[in-house]
Amino acid sequence: MKMLRRTVLATLSAATLAASMGAIAQDIKPRLIRFGYGLNEQSNQGRAVKVFADEVEKLSGGKMKIRAVGAAALGPDTQMQQALIGGAQEMMVGSTATLVGITKEMALWDTPFLFNSAKEADAVLDGPIGQKVMDKLQEKGLVGLVYWENGFRNMTNSQRPVAKMEDLNGIKLRVMQNPVYLDAFKTLGANAIPLPFSELFSALETKTVDGQENPYNTILSSKFYEVQKYLSVTNHVYSPWIVLVSKKWWDQLSKAEQKVLLDAAKVSREFERKDTRAEAGQCLDRPEGQGHADQRADPGRDRPHARQADQGQRLDRRQRRHGPLERDQDLARQDAQVSRHAAGRAGAVSSVTGPPVPSFTRRRRRPAVRRAPPKHPQP
Questions:
Q1: What is the sign of the dihedral through the CA atoms of 102, 104, 105 and 109?
Q2: In this predicted structure, what is the pLDDT of residue 9?
């Protein structure tokens, strides 16, 4: 009797599970999702989009497929955002800075020196503050899923090294179409010119602008080193990307379909951050001649808290190349307090650069040879 009861219970459990799985499967319909992004397929952005696409197909049992369209083929970020709001496009990933005109709260992430490290950025962006800012997008017709990492931004130009604030005077610097960036670089003395990213390379090539500012990965994948001579390591802003969905389209999805996209986005986020940071750490290790003349601003005097998460590793590389360097005493970080930073660090942009530290090319100095003085005076 007991054996019969167990058999019946096991059969009922299996049937219930199969029924629930069948119901979930019925909630997921065949869908082709257009996903636009600005960089090329070989970039860190392109690699992460592929991970997202593979995960969506896996979690949906092959029913939901991502059609990835890179290299700004669907237009710049601002154009894709409007397409999502209107329901003409389903998904995209782009900079939070280009969303400021739609949701003013996104300007928080453009505050100079807001984060001391990538670890701090992760904690805030993935926490309640980051979610609260992201939720504001729904009022404007967009749904934010996750933040990806674009990275700490640095400057390049074709005119001269930038080692102090005065060096920016008169440089035509392309900035994003964002009032925070425009005001900040105008204050520093640069001739700030707003320009879509898709037009940037040709503008640099034709000298329409002298320079630009972006994270290492973007500088490398976009081959800006072909048209730029100087790289100035300033780490002036930590720049996130955000994965967006059209709210009009999102509201048509079942809960199961929404969960597939959200879970896949979280998987892609973890991959993208690790991949981006690994690539950024290698960007300055290129053989000489494949990049810029490296001019570094001193992060220790004017902006003691501006550091990347891997700053210790970078200092170790500096020590191996140039001998011992003094570690700043402020490497012990405090937790990021976004509200305090946003209010108190707004004026910090005026100290974006400091005196130069040694160049980081692979050229080695020959050791000085001491010669003994001659025994007799030379004629």
A1: positive
A2: 57
Phi, psi values for residue 323, rounded to 5° = 90, 180
Q: Are 64 and 56 in contact (CB under 8 A)?
A: yes
Collect all residues with Cβ–Cβ distance below 8 Å to 37 and sequence separation of at least 6: 45, 46, 49, 68, 69, 70, 72, 92, 93, 94
What pLDDT sits at residue 108?
96
Q: Which SS3 state, helix, strand or coil, does residue 371 take?
A: coil
Cβ contact 78:156 at 8 Å:
no
Contact 45, 208 (CB under 8 A): no
Q: What is the DSSP letter of 342?
A: H
pTM of the model: 0.72
In this predicted structure, the answer to whether residue 303 has a pLDDT above a threshold of 50 is: no
Q: Which long-range contacts (CB under 8 A, 24 or more apart) does 126-130 make?
A: 129/338
Could you say which DSSP state residue 69 is in? E
> The tokens of 1 are what?
């009797």
pLDDT tens by residue, 312-364: 334 344 333 333 333 333 333 334 444 444 444 433 333 333 333 333 333 33
Of 100, 360, 24, 45, the residue nearest 215 (C-alpha)? 45
Among residues of the chain, what percentage have pLDDT more than 90? 66
- Cα 242 from chain centroid (whole Å): 9
pLDDT digits (tens, 9 = 90+) for 2-19: 565 665 555 555 555 444
Q: Is 197 helix (H, G, I), strand (E, B) or coil?
A: helix
* Element at 146 (helix H, strand E): strand 142-152
d(CA 274, CA 262): 19
Furthest-apart CA atoms within the chain: distance in Å: 121
Closest CA to 213 of 288, 265, 270, 162: 162
Strand pairing class (142-152; 172-175): unpaired
Determine the Cα–Cα distance for residues 190 and 209; give it in Å rounded to an integer.
Answer: 11
